[in-house]
Structure formats: C-alpha cells, structure tokens
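We close this part of the discussion by returning to an individual protein. In the encoding step, the backbone of a single protein was reduced to a row of integers, each denoting a local shape. The sequence in question and its structure tokens are set out directly beneath this paragraph.
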Amino acid sequence: MQLVFDGHNDVLFRLWSHAAEGADPVAEFIGGAAASGLTGKRRGHIDMARATEGGLAGGLCAIYISSGKSPPVRPDRNGHHATPLAAPLERAPSLDTALAIAAMALRIERAGGWAICRNRADIDAAMAVGKFAAVLHMEGCEPIDADLTALEVFYAAGLRSLGPVWSRNNIFGHGVPFAYPAHPDTGPGLTDAGRRLVKACNSMGILIDLAHITEKGFWDVADLSDQPLVASHSNVHAITPVARNLTDRQIDAIGERKGLIGLNFAVGMLRPDGQENKDTPISDMIRHIDYLVDRIGIDCVALGSDFDGAPIPAEIGDAAGLQKLIDRLRNAGYGDEDLVKICRGNWLRVLASAWHEAPNSQ
C-alpha cells in the first residue's frame, strides 16, 4: 500500500457541523458516524478506519468558516454556471468559530485520534506508528486581524499553513468565484494587509496556499514570497476551464519555484464539462496529473483531495478508496519512486521548505 499525505481536506468543518447537530466529533472521527450518534446522517469522507483502509496517513486539515448554505449549481442550457462570490464575513464570529474548530482538533489529538504536527519530524514520527499526521491549515483568513495578533496565537496552537482567501473577499485579498467556463483573473489581488500577512508567513514559517485566490493575487504572492509556490487543491484550467483551476502560466510559475499542485478530486474541477457529476471516471484524474507532470515534472505534483469539502468521483467514494487512484496511476506507467513523490514526498519536501527546515528522506 502506498501511504498518502494529502494536501487538503475539510474533515474539521464536517465534524464541527455535525457537533452543532448534537454529535460527538471525537467519536465521529475515531469511531465513525454511528459512534457519534449520527446514524443515518451523512458520513463524509474521512474517519480513522477509512483513512487506515485507504492508506491516508495524514494531511492538511482546514479550519474553514462557512458562508452559510451555498446556492445549488444550476447550469444553463449550454452547461455553463456561475455562483456569485459569497459576502464577506465579520471577524468576531469567524474568530469564535475558528477557535472552536481548533479546540476540537486538540480534543481529537488528546483522545488519540491523530497527532497535530508542527514540523517534519512530527509528521515522520506519526506516520511511523500509524497515527494520522494532521497539519492545521486555515482556509480563508477571516479570523485573523489586520495586525496579525491572532496569527501568533493560531501558530502556537499548531497552524502551519493558510490560504489568505477562500472564494470570497476579505481584508487580505480577493477570491475567485465558482464558475464555468471562467478565467481566474476575476478581480484585484492582495491588499496592503495581505502583503503584511505574506511577509509574516515567510518570517514565521507558515505555508501560503494559493488555492481560491484571484490570478492577480497569485502573482502578488509570487512577487512577495520566498517560499515555493503552492496550490493545495487546484487542477488544470486548459482541461477544465473553471475559475478555480490554474492557467498554464500559473502552472509554469509553480514549477519554476519548485512548488507543487495538489490534484483536487472535486468532480466539477476534473470534468472537461465542469459539471458536478459523481460519475466521473478516474481517467479524468489521471489526465490532469499527466498534464501537470508533462509540463512541470514529477517533483511538483501531489494530491489535494478536498475530502469532506466537495463531491468526488463515485469510484473513489471516500478515503478508503484512495488506493484505486494509486493503482490506476501505476497502470498508467507511474513507478514506485514516482508514486512516493505524488503521494507524500513532494508535500513533505515543500512543507519542510516553507517551515525553514532541511529536507529529509522520503
């Protein structure tokens, strides 16, 4: 079995949402939905048993603040769709929610469900004993103040990665909408506060994630940051022209900086027609990986599933189905060394670089 360190999941948001319905989030992660008291409810994609079955050894777990229920995607007769950007969020309630989610992550760690990893050695140690290696990520920085005081506190709690924006605007920058067909050049880039945030992340050793940001924001970060450029869960715009996917010019820049792109399993970002249809073949996933490998090399391609955050191919199903993708990659000609890089090695290299650590063996 090929172990996977995945670049993006929303399991914390799922658990927090279920806790609001009266479920026990620790029990849900450790024992599955039935153990949480959620029998008959949506089970999501990740818990301990399914992660173990699928070889999901760790990943970046997002602290994400919802804008509320998203409107349904309603394609027109041409299959085109556009969801307006969500309204900006207020900071105080966003901070309350982020603290509650971070506290929940710490409770899961205390219960033995995973290890919150703050450096590469922590990840290696967790994976060596079969414990899920969780790295805290913030998807959209609405909980952070312009003076970045809260950033110091979240860093102390284990935050080691952040995306300045989700697909909405905030004090740090501007996000792209969910739209097909559409280009990622949809608005302004970083604000002055966003530029201060990037510089602080560089200094502190916090990975900057370029998923969800406008193309102008992408280039603003590229100009300011000394890190490898990373899009944790984005795909190829030339194959699937949604606003969330990366243009060839963006892909090339990531390759030139020895960064990485994590394949997003979201079906609407995989299918050439941009539709949210779970009957999406694994071959569409392979097509995006092949394109990226051919363009920027095997060292810059990884996985960023978006488990618990998006509809994924039915053939994968959930974390337990990860090895189906690995098997198909192997059948497509990727050898064991290639698979180690795609499945975990490239992520561990980039995280070590962003965290100011020397690279380790894979």
